[in-house]
User: Fold 3-oxoacyl-ACP reductase FabG from Fodinisporobacter ferrooxydans.
Amino acid sequence: MRVKDRVAIVTGSARGIGAATAARLAKEGAKVVVCDVSGQQCRETAVGIRADGGEALAVACDVTRREQVKDLVQKTVDTYGRIDILVNNAGVIRDNLVHKMSDDDWDTVMNVHLKGAFYVTQEVQKYMVAQQYGKIVNISSTSALGNRGQLNYATAKAGMQGFTKTLAIELGRFHINVNAVAPGFIETDMTKATAERVGVDFDQFREMAKERSVLRTTGQPIDVANAILFFASDEARFITGQVLYVRGGI
Ligand code: NDP
Assistant:
């Protein structure tokens, strides 16, 4: 029970890495708030967590909408009385080469990753500051180091690292740790969509990713969830402003 009775918000937690993280935190004793845009799929995620003996609340929230973010935070506090852990996980891809990238591709990716993380963090940190306790984990990506066809996404994910380091400096005095996890190839709907876009069968795409990993394997959502759990727990008490790559040594 590494996060027993802690209250956690995981954005974009209906599926993939977010859902695995919510379930992992709940297994370790946290009360988790799961959210996605429609609120439908995250309700199923919450039902699954409760069926496993955990505590979960589902809230519809588009992180790019300030009013919806305020509502998410208010519902969390009304239900559980505090917020100890925030995982800024919600994400989308709109891949294209620079000469083909539309304004909408650029804006959508910037808005979900950067503006979304800013909105949720700004609303949540007030409670963490008042409590003098908090753990914020931001999801960056190996793409932050540069990746063909992902100018918008790579820029946003590099931005998440600056966001992490600056928040760590500003919020450290309030006993709030801020770290980032930067995954490599993780098998989720997102990597399936990438395979489809480049016109490669997913099994073949996975094999290509395995060859690039020194461990000769791909990542699963639980591999990222385990790293997030570490940063969200008091085991990481003396660690802040760090980026942990979870990418099988690619
Ligand atoms: P998925 O596509 O499987 O899931 C993304 C989740 O984000 C969904 O629940 C989706 O909700 C939610 N989401 C999207 N837009 C919004 C929004 N505006 N507001 C709230 N929620 C939103 O992605 P992954 O699980 O693969 O990715 C999770 C995170 O990890 C992302 O930040 C991604 O960039 C990052 N990442 C993933 C890697 C990978 O290989 N998979 C590698 C590196 C980083 P809905 O169902 O309603 O659309």
Remarks:
- The longest helix spans residues 103-131.
- Residues 23 and 49 are 6 Å apart (CA to CA).
- The radius of gyration is 17 Å.
